[in-house]
Amino acid sequence: MSPAQPLDALVIGAGPAGLAIAAALGAEGLKVVVLSPEDCRDPWPNTYGIWGDEVDALGLGHLLEHRWSYTCSYFGSGSSDSADPANSPTCHRRDYGLFDKNRLQQFWLERCEAAGVQWLRGRALELSHGSGRSQVATAAGEVLEARLVLDASGHKAVFVQRPDRGPVAGQAAYGVVGRFSAPPVEPGQFVLMDYRCDHLSPEERSEPPTFLYAMDLGQGRFFVEETSLALAAPVPYATLKQRLERRLAHRGVAIEQVEHEEFCLFPMNLPLPDLDQPVLAFGGAAAMVHPASGYLVGALLRRAPVLAAAVAARLRAEPAADSLQLAQAGWQALWPPELRRKHALYQFGLEKLMRFSEPQLRGHFASFFSLPSAQWYGFLTNTLSLGELLAAMLALFATAPWSVRWGLMGMRGREVQLGLRMLDP
Ligand SMILES: Cc1cc2nc3c(=O)[nH]c(=O)nc-3n(C[C@H](O)[C@H](O)[C@H](O)COP(=O)(O)OP(=O)(O)OC[C@H]3O[C@@H](n4cnc5c(N)ncnc54)[C@H](O)[C@@H]3O)c2cc1C
Predict the structure, then answer these.
(1) What is the CA angle 277-280-282, rounded to 5?
(2) What's the gap in Å between 100 CA and the centre of ligand 1?
(3) Per-residue pLDDT tens for 321-362?
(4) pTM confidence score
């Protein structure tokens, strides 16, 4: 049955972003409907990781299914010979966790339910604006009217507009959850990035670098994933799969039982949406994926209440506010100048990393994770102020080897443009 209209907010999509923002708008007392083709309780396809401190700061550590304290990366020589002293792991000394995705979904669903959020099955097709409100036509021919539409339909957003700034780089990964002939990582270990590459020929090492993201899931199960930082066009799955198998074979490890295969591809440097459009967005649709780490869920949890409060405050202050005015209040809260500058800075950094060779990347990350823990952690979770972020980047430059410094100094392609955007975001 169609909900009574007009609604205060119509949220498009029931992924993590849709549920997070619907729960937060509902908590502000708004009349909210979520429109999605699937049932809001259908399990999500992706697995979501997060730093332990990030989830603890939100008081949500209980939503994790796995948590590791032995967290490390390998940036030493390209060799995986454990007798090689340059090959010892860089220990991160911070916990890392994987969400229990059902618990995370349930967490938001319970809040939605408590706030009276309503659910509608359907696919949004067209958006129009009239009489100060927004109208969404669904594939089934229904028309829904709301004071504000929030596009949370993911990276290939259905309504939200953004400028075309050239090719968008994607983080691609191929992973396997399963059982192996021997442990692919040490017992109890979480590996953020393993850049060892002595299983590759010199020619292959000159191709775009990939790294291993891996973890011990306990009871003889492991998750191993060959990952590329970001590239346009993305590294093909077939290449990633072949590299993963070779990496494992080189260590004498064979995959014995595949429980789940993960095919991961999402954009890392989507331009920010136009901030003067009468539709608001949240999550992947709003370019909220961290351009350096690819993480999103921590930002959803932190920023949904802020965005919802800004929209609700505008509605309370100006009960007759139209869709454009409400969306503008939202865009200003979601992407204030400081966050836009930081986003430009991250994209500038990513652009440089995308053209780094494998030895340069190893040098870069070894220096990055030698920064004080608060600096690299704040960088990866986007919790530093602009000044602190700049200080972290300068410290990295000062401590990095010359091969990395030269790479950081040279300006190529659209780096100048991105650099200027930091000044005028
Ligand atoms: C394999 C993988 C692993 C990832 N791992 C992590 C991680 O560890 N940590 C992390 O923080 N991030 C991770 N990410 C990145 C990011 O968090 C995800 O892409 C995230 O799912 C984006 O959330 P979202 O809600 O914005 O979009 P989505 O999860 O894509 O949800 C979009 C929703 O919109 C609906 N929809 C789409 N079109 C329409 C339409 N026309 N009408 C109505 N509804 C529509 C969809 O059905 C869906 O419900 C990962 C991504 C992938 C692909």
Answers:
(1) 140
(2) 16
(3) 999 999 999 999 999 999 999 999 999 999 889 889 989 999
(4) 0.94
